[in-house]
Amino acid sequence: MLKSMLLESINVGQAEVISHKRKTHETGICKVSVKQSAYLDDAGVRGDTIVDLENHGGADQAVYAYSADDYDWWASETGRNYPPGLFGENLTIRRLPSDMNVGDRLLIGEVILEAAAPRIPCKTFTARMQDAGFGLVFRKAERPGVYFRVLSSGVVSFGDTVTFVADGSGAASILDLFRFHYALKHDVDELRRFLEAPLTIRFRKKIESKLESMANTSD
Question: How far apart are CA 115 and CA 166, in angstroms?
Answer without folding.
Answer: 10
